[in-house]
Design brief:
The protein is of the alpha/beta class and 300 residues long. The protein has 12 helices and 9 strands.
C-alpha cells in the first residue's frame, strides 16, 4: 500500500513524532514510503515498552532522535524538530478560527439566548471508553454549577459523541448547547473561546480548550501511582499553558497496575463528583472569569 500510494509522490521527508513504542508501525510506513529522509525517535528511548517493542527499528530511519528524557509530548515534538535543525517556539499550542468560525459561534450563542455576560462552562464527555467518567457524575456537576452560577453548559466533541451529548441534554437541568458532532474543529475552537472553564475527560477537546486559553479540569483515568511514561499519563499528555487541575485515582484498581488497562470505565470511577466541583470552584474563584463574547474575541 505504501509503495503504491506514497512512493510515486517522492516525499523529501517522513516524520514520525511518537516518542514511545511504535505500535502503529509508522516507522515501517515511513520506510516503505521511499522518503529520502525518515525521522523519528530512536528505539532506545525510555517510553512505555519502546525498547522492547521497537528493537532493531532504527534501521528504518535516516534520523533517529535519541531524546530519552521524560517530558510533555509538546516538548518531545519540539526536541525532535530541534534535532532536525529547526527552531520551534516553546509557546503553548494555539488555535486559529477564521471570521466564518467566529460568526458561527455568535449565531449559536444568539440562537440559544446566551448573552455576553452569561457564564459558559464547556464539558467533554467522550473519549476512549476507559477515559469516560460516568455521565451521572457529569450531570451532578453540571446541575450543581448551573444552580450555583446560572451557567450554560457547552458540550464539545466529535461525531461519535453526539448520542452521549444528547443523552446528557435530555437528563440535564441546565441550559445545554450541543456542539459535539455538529461543528468543525475550527468552529468548536471559536465556541470554546467563549467558555470560562472546561471540565472533562482526556480528549482532543481538552487540548483544544487549553489552546483556547480556557482553564481546564481534567478527569484522568491514569492513577497517581501509575507509570509517568504511560500513554495516558498527564505528565506526557496533560493540559499545558493554562491554569488547570488534574484529578486522578489515587491508586490503580485491581487488576490494573501501571495504568488503567480496562476496556470500559474502571479506575476513573474512583474520582468523585465533589472532587470535580471543588476543583472547578477553585479555578473559577482564582481570577475574574472571562465570559463576554467581545473579550473572547480579543484573545484571537
Amino acid at each position: 500500500m505504501a509503495f503504491r500510494k506514497l512512493l510515486p509522490r517522492r516525499f523529501d521527508w517522513a516524520i514520525h513524532p511518537r516518542w514511545d513504542a511504535d505500535r502503529s508501525h509508522a516507522s515501517f510506513l515511513a520506510y516503505f514510503s521511499g522518503a529520502a529522509r525518515r525521522a523519528g525517535y530512536s528505539e532506545h528511548v525510555r517510553g512505555s515498552g519502546a525498547r522492547r517493542e521497537n528493537r532493531g527499528w532504527d534501521v528504518l530511519l535516516t534520523d533517529a532522535c535519541p531524546d530519552s528524557e521524560l517530558k510533555h509530548e509538546i516538548h518531545h515534538n519540539a526536541a525532535l524538530l530541534r534535532f532536525l535543525g529547526a527552531s520551534p517556539s516553546e509557546s503553548p499550542s494555539e488555535l486559529w478560527p477564521d471570521d466564518a468560525d467566529w460568526s458561527l459561534a455568535e449565531t449559536v450563542w444568539r440562537h440559544h439566548g446566551v448573552r455576553d455576560r452569561d457564564l459558559v462552562i464547556a464539558f467533554g464527555l467522550g473519549g476512549e471508553p476507559k477515559r469516560q467518567w460516568p455521565i451521572e457524575h457529569f450531570l451532578h456537576v453540571s446541575n450543581t454549577l448551573s444552580r450555583e452560577r446560572n451557567a450554560t453548559i457547552l458540550i464539545v466533541g466529535g461525531p461519535n459523541e453526539r448520542d452521549l451529548a444528547e443523552q446528557f441534554q435530555k437528563r440535564s437541568a441546565a441550559k445545554t448547547v450541543i456542539a459535539a458532532g455538529f461543528t468543525t474543529l475550527r468552529e468548536t475552537a471559536a465556541l470554546l473561546h467563549r467558555a470560562a472553564i472546561y471540565i472533562g475527560n482526556d480528549t482532543g477537546a481538552m487540548h483544544m480548550a487549553a489552546a483556547a486559553e480556557v482553564k481546564v479540569v481534567e478527569i484522568s483515568c491514569h492513577p497517581q501511582n501509575g507509570a509517568l511514561a504511560h500513554s495516558n499519563s498527564p505528565a506526557r499528555f496533560g493540559p499545558v499553558g493554562i491554569e488547570h487541575r488534574i484529578l486522578q485515582p489515587k491508586t490503580a484498581l485491581t487488576p490494573c497496575v501501571d495504568g488503567c488497562s480496562a476496556s470500559e470505565p474502571h479506575c476513573i470511577r474512583a474520582i468523585e463528583p465533589e472532587q470535580v466541583l471543588a476543583a472547578a470552584r477553585e479555578l473559577m474563584a482564582e481570577a475574574p472569569v472571562l465570559v463576554s463574547q467581545e473579550a473572547a474575541y480579543e484573545r484571537r
